[in-house]
Amino acid sequence: MGKISGVVIEVTRLTDRISSLVVAATDGVALPTWEAGAHVEFDLAVGARAYSLVSFDAVLKTPTSYRIVVQREDNGQGGSQAMHAMQVGDPITFSAPKNDFAVIPDAPAVLLAGGIGVTPLISMAVALERAGQEFRFHYSGRSADVMAYPAELSSNWGDAFTLHCDGAETALDLDRVMSFVGSAHLYVCGPRGLLDAARAKAETTGIPSERVHFELFEAASTQGGDTAFEVQINDGTVYTIPIGQSIIDVLEENDVDVMYDCQRGDCGICQCDVLEGTPDHRDVVLSKAERDAGDVMQICVSRAKSARLVLDI
Ligand code: FES
C-alpha cells in the first residue's frame, strides 16, 4: 500500500513533553488494520519518522484512525518537535503499519518499558489480556509525572503492572524483572542503556535469545565529538556526511537507492558491508564480536571513526 494522505483529528497533551495524536485518512476511509508492536512512518519536513501505534482497546479490522504518543526531544533531529507542533486539522502523510516487534499472543510475557518506549507495550498488554495470556508489565522512568499513562496502566492491569521510578524504592531492579521471566518471552522497548542492560542480564540469567525481543526507542541525536566523514560507494563517488545527518540521509538526497526501515539501529535492514575504514557503531543489532570485526555496519545510525568509509553500496 502506498502512502496515506491524512489529517490530525485529535491532540492531547499528557505531560509537558508527551502528547498523544490521532490521525485519520483525509477522506475518512478505513485504514489498514495492525497488530500490537506495529509502527507507522510519518513524512515530516525533517524526514520520515516512525512511531508505534497505541490502542487501549482491541484493534478493529477496519480502523478509521491511528493513535501515536510522542515525546518531544529538544536535542533530537526535529521529528518529535514537528509532531508536537501539529494541530487538529493539519495535513499529514503516513505509511501503512509495519511490524518488526510483534508479540506472540499464545505465550506468557514480561513487558519491560523504559520511558516513552512504553507505547508499543501498551498495545501488547491489551493483546495479551484479550488472548487470556499471563503477562507482567514493568514501566520504568524518572517519575510518574513525566511518564505516559501511569494511572491508566495501573488501573487497567493492577498487580500485573509495576511502575518503577528512578531513585525511589520502586526503582527498576533488572534481577527482579528477570526472575519473573521463567519460560515467558521478554519484550523490551526503551533507550539504548536499558536495552543493553536488559539483554546482558537476560543472557547471564540464561534466557534464550529467541525469547528476548527488543525495539530501540531513542531519538537519533547528535553526540558530542561527532565529526563529518566521507563515504565512498561502489561507483567511486565520495559523499561527505555532515554532523547531524546520517549516511542514509545523504545517500537518499543524492538519489542513491538504499534499503532501510526503523532508522533507529534496531531492525538490521540497512546493514551493509564495510570494505575499508572503521565504523563507529551506534546500533543495537550487532554483537560485540561483529562490532569488533567492523566489516558490516547499520548506515542509519552508525558513523565513522576513520576519515573515510568505503561501503559496498
Ligand atoms: S534501518 Fe533499521 S537498523 Fe538501520
Q: How would you portray this structure in words?
A:
With 313 residues, this protein is of the alpha/beta class. It has 3 domains: 4-94, Elongation Factor Tu (Ef-tu), domain 3; 109-216, Nucleotide-binding domain of ferredoxin-NADP reductase (FNR) module (Rossmann fold); 229-311, Beta-grasp domain (Ubiquitin-like (UB roll), Roll), CATH 3.10.20. Helices cover 19% and strands 30% of the residues. It has a 6-stranded antiparallel β-sheet with strand order 4-3-6-1-2-5. The chain is globular, with a radius of gyration of 20 Å. Bound molecules: FE2/S2 (inorganic) cluster.
Proportion of residues in β-strands: 25-35%
Query: Count of helical segments?
Result: 7
The H-level CATH homologous superfamily of the largest domain, spelled out, is: Nucleotide-binding domain of ferredoxin-NADP reductase (FNR) module
Q: State mean pLDDT (0 to 100 scale).
A: 92
Structural class: alpha/beta
The H-and-E topology, N to C, reads as: EEEEEHEEHEHEHEHEEEHEEHEEE
Number of strands: 18
Radius of gyration: 20 Å
Estimate the global geometry from the Cα principal axes.
globular
